Amino acid sequence: MSEKLIIVTIDGPAGVGKSTVSKKVAAATGFTYLDTGAMYRAVGLFFQEASVDLDNISQVREKLDMIEIELFPATDEDSDVGVRLCGEDVSEAIRTPEMAMVASKVSAIPVVREVLTKIQREYGTRGRIVAEGRDTGTVVFPLAAYKFFLDAEPRERAERRFRQLKARGEEADYQELLRMTIERDNNDRNRLVAPLKQADDAVLIDTTALDVEEVVKQILAIVNG
Ligand SMILES: Nc1ncnc2c1ncn2[C@@H]1O[C@H](COP(=O)(O)OP(=O)(O)OP(=O)(O)O)[C@@H](O)[C@H]1O
Ligand SMILES: Nc1ccn([C@@H]2O[C@H](COP(=O)(O)O)[C@@H](O)[C@H]2O)c(=O)n1
């Protein structure tokens, strides 16, 4: 396979470390990092601001036709990918735990997935992509050369999100984060369209007892073969 077609997919549940690990793998390989979650968060923000009735599919379709999402690279490994929504920088607004819950709702709507999956695949045609999300290895890039599924205990993942928010100087309630983590897991795993699951040919890495560097090392050992 020519190198330009190599795509790495990293899927897994909320708070497991996909973004952190994916950015480091992309930096180490010189690949481009694709944060598919940021797209769903941006759609969620757009629908919320436009007071879209998520049960009104024709309204959802009409609003989807108006949306313009632009991702731009994170300034460093510790920052998130930037997002412009119809020209407005919403990079911070999409990163709240509340927006994650909204994203988890809109991501269950088939036409939303259809539109965003098409955009994600267009990114993929460039090759040399590290794509992270819930369905990048099962639906978006089923022929990806390397697929990984990261997992960890829900309490560990809520702990990680708690430490992340506190480190950013943000208010955080561990019990509420644990509740939201479990709710997002249920939404993502049980939806009818593109549910969160390990691709049959994905390498499972249980990160519960591993630190970030150990996870990145395991992935690079396989990708760099
Ligand atoms: N193996 C690990 N051990 C300890 N902390 C980790 C590990 N992996 C990631 N983290 C930390 O956990 C926090 C959440 O990681 P990250 O945002 O990458 O998760 P995510 O899977 O992208 O979450 P979401 O899907 O909700 O966006 C970050 O502060 C990150 O540094
Ligand atoms: N490929 C994806 C990526 C994300 N989602 C949904 O968006 C929510 C937010 O994603 P984060 O990775 O930024 O937390 C997530 O909870 C999913 O519901 C998706 O469905 N498919």
UniProtKB/TrEMBL annotation:
Signal sequence coordinates: none
One BP annotation, GO: pyrimidine nucleotide metabolic process
Transferase as UniProt keyword: yes
One MF term in the entry's GO annotations: dCMP kinase activity
Main location: cytoplasm
Domain Cytidylate kinase: 8-224
Record InterPro entries: Cytidylate_kin (IPR003136), Cytidylate_kinase_dom (IPR011994), P-loop_NTPase (IPR027417)
Coiled-coil residue windows: none
Positions with a binding annotation for ATP: 12-20
Keyword tRNA processing: no
Compartments where located: Cytoplasm
Alphabetically ordered keywords of this record: ATP-binding, Cytoplasm, Kinase, Nucleotide-binding, Transferase
Protein name: Cytidylate kinase
Native source species: Desulforhopalus singaporensis
Gene: cmk
